[in-house]
Amino acid sequence: MAIDTSSSAAPMLRLERVSKWFAQRDGNPLHVLQDIDITVETNSIVALLGASGCGKSTLLNIVAGLVTPDRGRVFLEGKPASESFDWRAMTYMFQEDRLLPWRTALQNVAFGLEALNVPRAQRIERAAQALNMVGLDKFASAFPHELSGGMRSRVALARSLVTRPKLLLMDEPFSKLDPSIRSHMHTEVLRLARMTSTTVLFVTHDIEEAAVLADRIVLLQPRPGRVREAIEVDLAHPRHAASPDVVTCVQAIRQKMHAEATCA
């Protein structure tokens, strides 16, 4: 089905029959993704959920333009991504925070603005505002080794948002944090995404994380990675992992994933 590129209501992201193969030493290509169709509406939070090996990170890298699909198309705001999208309007949070150890928290946050040629005074002002948003304004002069894991993640989040992106991609950036700190980061992501009108697409294998954060969960099955089901999470925010509605949602998704693993 063709995308109407003239519509002002076009979604932030649309993947249309995206497939990917990777070369292997034995000469047989590895089929990683098959005919992926996903829509991410503007100002929504969507989770890509699935077991290891279902192509979640590869899919995120395709959206980011880091990997080229072998088949299919990627549309951003209703237009082919490769032709018209301003890639400065997208940011990517990786599994590692990737903070520069020789830079302070403020300087790390400001780093992305340097590539955009933002004048120094504006860089400092916007970086300070971003640190304030994540509650770290008092740690602007601290270096990464002086910060806890949760604080480093908040600096990375501030760095991702300081460029005022339309789309934030997240590849399990909180997976190494303690549960209580991870829960706090979920609250921060929700609050800041709403505050800044940022669309979020994130990868996770944590069902609770998906249920707490996402408006929509795309359940992927391996391999090759395919969309098994898109699940609307019609629960009010804030959500808590222990609340009955979230527990019920998690149990239903876990049953779907278990059934898929059993049939594989």
Write the layout of secondary structure elements.
Elements: E1 13-22, E2 30-40, E3 45-49, H1 56-63, E4 71-76, E5 79-80, H2 81-84, E6 90-93, H3 105-115, H4 120-133, H5 149-161, E7 167-171, H6 179-196, E8 199-204, H7 207-213, E9 216-221, E10 226-232, H8 244-263
Parallel strand pairs: 3-8, 3-9, 6-7, 7-8
Antiparallel strand pairs: 1-2, 1-4, 4-5, 9-10
Helix pairs in contact: 3-4, 3-5, 4-5, 5-6, 7-8
Structure explained in plain terms:
The protein has 264 residues and is α/β, with parallel strands linked by helices. The protein has a domain at 13-90 and 168-263: P-loop containing nucleotide triphosphate hydrolases (Rossmann fold). Helix content is 36%, strand content 23%. It is built from eight helices and ten strands. The protein has a six-stranded mixed sheet with strand order 6-7-8-3-9-10, with helices on both faces. Strand 7 (167-171), helix 6 (179-196) and strand 8 form a beta-alpha-beta unit. Helix 4 (120-133) packs across helix 5 (149-161). The longest helix is centred in the C-terminal third of the chain and has 20 residues, at 244-263. It is globular.
List the uncertain runs.
1-7
CATH superfamily name of the domain at 13-90 and 168-263? P-loop containing nucleotide triphosphate hydrolases
Oligomer: single chain
Roughly how much helix do the residues carry, as a percent range? 25-40%
CATH architecture of the domain at 13-90 and 168-263: 3-Layer(aba) Sandwich
Radius of gyration: 19 Å
Query: In whole angstroms, how far apart are the ends?
Result: 30 Å
Per the CATH scheme, the topology name of the domain at 13-90 and 168-263 is: Rossmann fold
| Fraction in beta strands | 15-25%
Estimate the mean pLDDT confidence: 89
What is the number of E strands?
10
Tally the helices. 8
Topology order in helix (H) and strand (E) letters: EEEHEEHEHHHEHEHEEH
The CATH class of the domain at 13-90 and 168-263 is identified as Alpha Beta
Shape: globular
Largest sheet: 6 strands, mixed
Structural class: alpha/beta
> Largest beta sheet: what is the strand line-up?
6-7-8-3-9-10
